[in-house]
Amino acid sequence: MGHPAATPSSATAQDSAWIGRSMERVEDAALLSGNGRFIDDLGVRPGTLYAAILRSPHAHADILSIDTMAAKAAPGVAAVLVGADVKALTASLVVGVKAPVECWPIAMDRVRYVGEPVAVVVASDRYKAEDALDLIDVRYAPRPSVIDPLAAITPGAPLVHDGFPNNVASDRHFSYGDPEGAFASAAHRIAIDINYPRNSCTPIETYGVIAEYNVNDGAYDILANFQGPFSIHAVISRALKLPGNRVRLRTPPDSGGSFGVKQGVFPYIVLIAAAARVAGRPVKWIEDRLEHLCASNSATNRATTLSAAVDATGKILALDWDQVEDCGAHLRAPEPATLYRMHGNLTGAYDIRHMRVRNRVIVTNKTPTGLNRGFGGPQVYFALERLMQCIAVELDFDPLDVIQRNVVPSGAFPYRTAPGALLDSGDYVKALELGASSGGLEELKARRAAARAEGRIYGIGYAAIVEPSVSNMGYLSTVLTLAERRKAGPKNGAQATATVSIDPVGAVSVHISSVPQGQGHRTVVAQVIADIFGVVPQDVRVNTEVDTAKDAWSIASGNYSSRFAAAVAGTVKIAADRIAARLKRIAASHLNVEADDVTFSNGKVHSQSNPDNAMPFARVAALSHWSPGSLPDDVGHTIRETVFWTPPELAAPDDADRINSSLCYGFIFDYCGVEIDRVTGEVRIDRYVTTHDCGTILHPGMVDGQIRGGFGQGFGAALLEEFAYAPDGSFLAGTFADYLVPTATEIPNPVIVHMQTPSPFTPLGAKGVGEGNCMSTPVCIANAVADALGEKNITLPLVPARVRALIAGDEPPAPAGVTTQPRSRKPGDRGLQGEGSAEVGASPQAVWDMLLDPNTLQAVIPGCHSVEKVSDTHFRAEVTLGIGPVKGKYRAEVKLSDLDPPHAVTLSGSADGALGHGAGEGRITLVPREGGGTTLTYKYDAEIGGKVASIGGRLLDGATRVIIGQFFSALAHRAGGGGAADGAASGLRAWLRALFGGAR
Amino acid sequence: MPRLTATQRHSVRFRLNGHPVEGSAEPRMQLADFLRHELGATGTHVGCEHGVCGACTVLVDGMLTRSCLTLAVQVDGCDVRTVEGLAPERGRLSVLQAAFRRHHGLQCGFCTPGVLMSLDRYLSTNPNPTEDQLRELLSGHLCRCTGYTPIIRAAMEAAATLASSTRQEDSTHV
């Protein structure tokens, strides 16, 4: 260890502006040295307890009973809460639409998704809390579940909530212009059906909450790595049944990524706060990865049918959207915002004057959805940009020609879209040209031609989108009808907040309620301040923690909708400019010049015309503290300035449902070349070019960082990532070995091209840039694959198996004479099937007797603790089994049927435990062997769900085979001699047993 | 290895970044939890607790080790190195750390400690890595912020800087 040190960088004041320079971040030294302050790094009060959460293994079930007696008596346990305990202290979370539906942070009498909290244990440490989870006995009665959004709205589908008829929470129709006329007169109607999958940006730091209830004040003090929007604070305090001033919500100094996801910590804030109140002590909870993947939050999956009315030249006259938005099991705030965030820019980057929209928000038995980078953009642009490619294919145009023919023309900005967005600035035509020339589009086309000439599979895809930023807090009210909106009152705007303070030695501090999770806000704010006050950024201290009890904040505070550069940094500028104006007047009186002549540079306040006529900045800045009486009369002070800024362009939806859903609209033009491996189906990116116009760039290094990061996540969504569910609602992606996120070996380095058209609506001319590639990259890659394969029906993620199926078509029938095992499995079915045999050194009758004897069964069932004989043909057993990393206790019920003594019997049974549940059936036949003994053969068919399916899915087949093999092996052994020959080689079996920790 | 009692805390002693440390742990306690919550060395982060994300990577007797898959009692008597030990002295950054800052090789910084440990170890034995080699090495780490390119650039630059300083040292010793 101990490499030689780098030369410490010393910053010096320069004449050139700090804004626009890729200076080193002020955040980084601590983060690189292990001195970050993430929530789990912070100390807690003495006596703090730790929570662990028991979660539902079922997608949909009634809770018949919960027995917490044993858990409450376990060592170190201070409290165990179930739904009723939480209900006694809280109110339902607000639901985003008007309906007789409740939304609790813990299941009340029914679970609606795998991972839904069922009980909370609070104990002296996390290990003991988890021990006690195993002792909670929950009895469920499973209900039919519904996973697919289109199946959910089919008549007769299982209902997730009785208050949402047909699982529909909202169904709204919108019409802008004359879509019927446009479709009637158009030369072509071209349509596409999309099923956009579920995924998430999965920050590497999980959720964390530390809560405490002060019984004397009747107030909560909560620290959580929440990311905003702080409109959620109102939801939390309402759920905790207290006014907001008794719910103090604070955020830690550092947060390990969020990408929207940590908005979803808020139900756990309520849950852990309730637990702290019950326990009478502070309670800390840090989510684990399985909890995070399974139950934190997810982007919505969406089924979309999008049609376009297109004239003969490829010009789009009208769009017709039919979106079915799957928000999972609960409509949690701020949903259904994912669907409405893009509403104003549903026409994308295109000049389309007529549009019809049907938006349905529906519920299914999956994890509730919430903020995720791109928020609605990936779903919308996947449909729109896939449609653009289909138009090109159907009308035999070049895809880029269709884009160019339809983009908003140069000189048309600000441009009001049909559904109401005000596209603030840009030159899309020029950006298309710049991107094509700078990124080498012609060369890429030549590479495609060459590859195809050699018989390789190569395609080029495009995507042209607008990237909205700075959300209008009123856009969600578009989900309400006009009458409902009038009743609810207007919602609009987006208050950004900044406080600039000067201390008694003239040092500048800034506070912003922006809650970054690694975006470098402190650095950029220091740059903004440095330019205004003529100091170096290193001299400015910026605090981005939020404390709702002390800080300036509003509902729009937080880090989402890429609002920092456009709104928050701009608000800092406004606050600093106000102080600067006063400082100039103070300095003017000391320097005997006009205030207009005063300027700031190199740590000095001086006359522009005579730079030698100067005072140190710190001296002028400190005067308000030391000598307020000497200030010019109407200056007031320069100690602290707090600014709330909301742009007037963010109006409420109008009576025609037009909504300017965001303040800024950046432009992105992406294209890429991909080559597909004909044998494996792997998609390899040959080159990816992404052109951005995000207005004025404040810090080029960070802008490129946002683009690369968003590209990485878009790449993952395109090719790897999916929150997969089995048809029964079991969650199948509970580890990072099942939910694959891209690594350094997969993600290519995109070519980034910049253009800067400042926004006229933001103080610094900047627009957001954080989410664009999450919106553009998935569909750009999909379009390239569509081009490569000549295939219209493209579904993400494009994993090799799926692409290979597109290349190869249906599997050919087996050659004559080869029989294949009939498999009745449906796609996604995790049914486990197997068969085997064992040689037993006892007569069939002896074996038969053993099979029906509880003592024998207890001895031979792997991991069995006890067998209870309920009747001659009904046994109850307790077993401990390990499958993969998951070892746990199960209660098993076994029933015998079709008895044919001593020849054959059918065993059917179910197992249920904290780690999962299963059901299966097996037929055992006993055939006497020549010369004594019995050949025992068995065949089984089982289904397994719950936690074990989430994290051990890849291992289940093998592990099941091992365990069943062990059963018969032990039976044979007990019967005296013989051995198992159960299909698997015994060496392999021993190895698997060692690997899985098999039984005992 | 001595037989340990599951329900008891056992004394654990080792060297952490060159300094002797001591604490007690139940046999089941993860090394990551021990480092963070018993010793207060919170620079090592826990991202997945199943050995995939790499955030918790530390060095145990010179071997890159997932501290979430290692028990604290296993490192009794070992030499353990963590991100807190990378800087040549307090308040300064190593060549690798400084290269990360210069190239914006981190955003949220949560995965960074593990990434730094792997790269620091790798560069100490592979002074002239190719980009492909570094990408292969980093495939054991998940970063959701950067898209990896700035990390690769930082590592390549650090490798070049270290190699040139080693050459200078060699030449002065000739």
Can you put this structure into words, describing what you see?
The complex is a heterodimer of chains A (about 1000) and B (about 170). Chain A has about 1000 residues and is α+β, with helices and mostly antiparallel strands. Chain A has four domains: about 40-145 and about 200-295, Aldehyde oxidase/xanthine dehydrogenase, a/b hammerhead (Aldehyde Oxidoreductase, domain 3, Alpha-Beta Complex); about 150-200 and about 300-475 and about 650-805, Aldehyde oxidase/xanthine dehydrogenase, molybdopterin binding domain (Aldehyde Oxidoreductase, domain 4), CATH 3.30.365.10; about 495-645, Aldehyde Oxidoreductase, domain 4, CATH 3.30.365; about 830-995, START domain (Alpha-D-Glucose-1,6-Bisphosphate, Chain A, domain 4). Chain A is about 30% helix and about 25% strand. Chain A has an eight-stranded antiparallel beta sheet. In chain A, strands 3-5-1-12-9-10-11 form a seven-stranded mixed beta sheet. In chain A, strands 7-15-14-13-8 form a five-stranded mixed beta sheet. In chain A, helix 16 packs parallel to helix 17 (about 565-590). Chain B has about 170 residues and is of the alpha+beta class. Chain B has five helices and five strands. The model of chain B has no long low-confidence stretch (mean pLDDT about 95). The chains are: A alpha+beta (about 1000), B alpha+beta (about 170). The interface between A and B is large, with 62 and 72 residues.
Summarize the structure.
By secondary structure, chain A is α+β, with helices and mostly antiparallel strands. Helices cover 28% and strands 26% of the residues of chain A.
* CATH homologous superfamily assignment of the largest domain in chain B: [2Fe-2S]-binding domain
Shape of chain B: globular
Number of helices of chain B: 5
Task: Specify which chain pair forms the largest interface.
Answer: A-B, 62 and 72 residues
Task: State the secondary-structure class of chain B.
Answer: alpha+beta
Percent of residues in beta strands of chain A = 25-35%
Q: Sheet with the most strands of chain A?
A: 8 strands, antiparallel
Kindly report the name of the CATH homologous superfamily of the largest domain in chain A.
Aldehyde oxidase/xanthine dehydrogenase, molybdopterin binding domain
